[in-house]
Amino acid sequence: MNTTTEKKRFTTQDVMVIAAMMVLTFAVYGAVGTLTLPFPFLYLYCSAGIQEFFCATFYLVVANRLNKHGILMVWSTVFGIISALGGYVFLLPYFLLVGVICELVMLGRDSYRKPLRNAMGWSCYGLGMIIGNTVPIWAAWESYVAKASTEGFSQEVFDMQLNMLSSPWHMIGACAITVALALLGCLFGQRILRRHFQKAGIVK
């Protein structure tokens, strides 16, 4: 079997693998968002990192099983489409850009089976997620407030969001937390892969 990531197209089976792992990913995203929303600091500064920590294993299963360029592009594009369908149309081009940047990070042969490269790519995706949380505030504050209010956002969350954007250090801190948790998630995920998925023959 060809193990390189060069010029390999996605098959129907590949799409099914990605879809299965992304369903689990979005289930975790929803659960983490709901559980952290009552705690503004956790929601704004840590939720993206917590999501990337728990979902790193799902990404690593796809990366190691398929070993094909375009995985993070697909991952980011699907999230952008779902965001657009949820009313944030301007997030689709943003996440397309995130996907392109992630794929540039993953350039090279067999990069999707190299732990360090996967950690770099997943951390880049995590950064895209935390920064993406601020895009609606910059792009459409009034419509964002109207929509977020119907989803249970408190005034404390809105105020803390504005405070986070008013200080570069707050945003840098949120990004650092996200990257740290994404990296830890990849370390944890690699152990899960070695102990369970590789033994079961699901990934190489």
Automatic annotation (TrEMBL):
The chain crosses the membrane at residues 15-36, 42-62, 120-141, 169-189. InterPro entries: CHP02185_IM. Keywords: Membrane, Transmembrane, Transmembrane helix. This is MptD family putative ECF transporter S component. It comes from Brotocaccenecus cirricatena. The lineage of its organism: Bacteria, Bacillati, Bacillota, Clostridia, Eubacteriales.
